[in-house]
Give the backbone structure.
Amino acid sequence: MDSEWRSRYEVALEAATQAGDLARGYFDTPTFSVEKKADLSPVTIADRQAEQLIRKLVGERFPSDGFLGEEFGDQPGSSGFRWVIDPIDGTRSFIRHIPIWATLIGLEYKGEQIGGVAYLPVFGSTYRALRGDGAYVNDRRIHVSSVDRLSQSLMCYSSIRWFQSAGREKTFLELVSKTERQRGFGDFYGFVLVAEGAADLMLEHGVHEWDVSALKVIVEEAGGTFTDWTGTPTTSTPDVLATNTILHVETLKILQKR
């Protein structure tokens, strides 16, 4: 295992824990201010302070690395490494005091996702993976399911409205009819459920790189497959699909119908 990858991965775990715990302090208070960004998505002081904490901690250890974060944008580096940060994935849940939110840190090297951390402060769980080293929740190794039929699968998704806005409502409903169960576990949560074998596919539309960079490697190191709806293994498009691999091709065929 590359020592530079490993050292950064360990710092990612440390930074995600510190930032998530900082955000948890706000989550546990009765009220906190919520603002609207230019795209009308919500942001809190916890989002901003958590991302600042991660950038400061990482910047002190690896000053030539780059950053891409939801709250403070792109900061190019010169080392080939880039940290992709979503300080609170699930801000809408956070502001409603729903405990399903996480601090996400994705680690890239020369454009490839090599490490990912998803820290769930309220649950005390850390989903994590380093390329070539497997996927874990805390210290337990995780793996995708062996379900081999859509008719027996559990599908996760974010919001039907995203599929309506993309003009893909009929496609979504076809997948609903072909799967056994469906659950609206949006944001990061559906992806980690696929990684640990609790769900079989996660369908999402309208994401940014910081929403999924950490999750792609976790799904893949757990034996799953992560692509966009064309089948390209990327985090730079708004439509993504994560599966247990067995169901990937069949699901893509449905998504690609017009």
Notes: The chain has a mean pLDDT of 94.
